[in-house]
Amino acid sequence: MHAAHWRQDFAASWVVFLVALPLCVGIAVASGVPAELGLITGIVGGLVTGLLPGSSLQVSGPAAGLTVLVFEATRDHGLSVLGAVVLATGLFQLLLGALGWGRWFRAISVSVVEGMLTGIGLVLIAGQLYSMAGAKAPDSGPDKIIGLPGMLADAVVSTSARASLLLGAATIAVLVLWQRLPARVRAVPGPLAAVAMATLVSLALGLPVAEVRVDGLLAAVQPPALADLGRLVEPGVIGTVLAFTLIASAESLFSAAAVDRMHHGPRTHYNRELMAQGAGNTVCGLLGALPMTAVIVRSSANVRAGARTKLSRVLHGVWLLLFAALLPSALTLIPLPALAAVLVHAGFKLIPARQVLGLWRERRGEVLILAVTAVSIVMVSMFEGVLIGLGLAVAKAAWEASQVRLEVTDKGAGPVQVRLLGNATFLRLPKLLESLEALPQDRPVELDLSGLHHLDHACRTALQAWAQRHSATGTDPVRIT
């Protein structure tokens, strides 16, 4: 940290704090946990992860991308197990960073990541539309989407639901239009402005809408008990830990790569950043709070506000702590439809429409992986959807890598010369055997394998079997080189 930059960092810390405050609360409420847990994760992201090396300017805290996963975890395993899951996630990230595996998260297919964000965005939008209308959302993704028309129809005839929905719609309108206002006005972060306006309108008109419930920061801290830690051996809980680790780590490191493109300062050290995220999640787990990731919205706000060192993100954690300790009652004035609207807007921003259009023009196979990943997340669950997407990406890569070409030279007399080039794997075996079996049965064959970069066991065995069959007709034995 350089003293010469403290003024820029101090000013940037307030911008990040004002962006983070409504998001921390909104993400917690959307995740089905007390609002204070989102603030605790934001505080830890500033005071713990913010102090550690890795990426100097990106900001960590609760992320909209983990909302669906946290909601599913608390629904399936209970809120008391959340701390144990986040603790295990943090320890796992520390181990992966220490082993130098941070760079491998950058190798995850971009189409899988974009599909993951799209799926999360769709489920987040569908779920928060119910909250905007003051209704309870169904548990599964398909039920959320199928039930939307009925929910909207019911909201129209209910005075309280209609008021709630209109307040949420107005909040989204402010968020969308805020970016078109003069730069001097946009110095106030859009989410804060939208929530503040919705709060003032709700208070002034006395709207019958639900508001945030706050019980106090210390009351929300619930360290995992031994019984909760013991549940980490359950298959379902293990799957949740792996999903948290994969998604939180990938989102953090992809965010780091994006933030590095926004400034000219020191580059991210990915293994150290993964360990910093692990340390933060370990502390969050011990406090029973939400999991954290590096968040691109807060990070980009930090860079654009002129931050130069990690001091800005540390100070934003200090401001969150002071607010939660001194002014918690202020949160009870915030209408829930406004927070739901902020997350609906965040859900739309998770859907990479421009990237999808670019991929469609260049590589339509990647769009298929993206779409399958997103649909699987909506229809099944987060963890299974990501695994399906990763499996499809690996299969596509294997198929594209296993290109093999057959060159046949037939001079009309003497042996037929056949040369194989590329990578011969079982994926191309049917076409390869079909071409070899089309060769003249009454002519000797010279099979040259020197042009192959890779020959797997299945292909080698099949080629030997074909050679025996070809020679069994009385033709000279196939000569393989």
UniProtKB/TrEMBL annotation:
- Keywords on record: Membrane, Transmembrane, Transmembrane helix
Residues annotated as transmembrane: 12-30, 37-59, 79-101, 108-131, 151-178, 190-210, 237-259, 279-297, 317-346, 367-395
Domain SLC26A/SulP transporter span(s) in chain numbering: 7-373
Source species, domain of life: Bacteria
GO BP annotations, alphabetical order: transmembrane transport
Localization per Swiss-Prot or TrEMBL: Membrane
Q: Which Pfam families match?
A: Sulfate_transp
* Topology in the lipid bilayer: Multi-pass membrane protein
Q: What is this protein called?
A: Sulfate transporter family protein
Source organism per entry reads Streptomyces sulfonofaciens
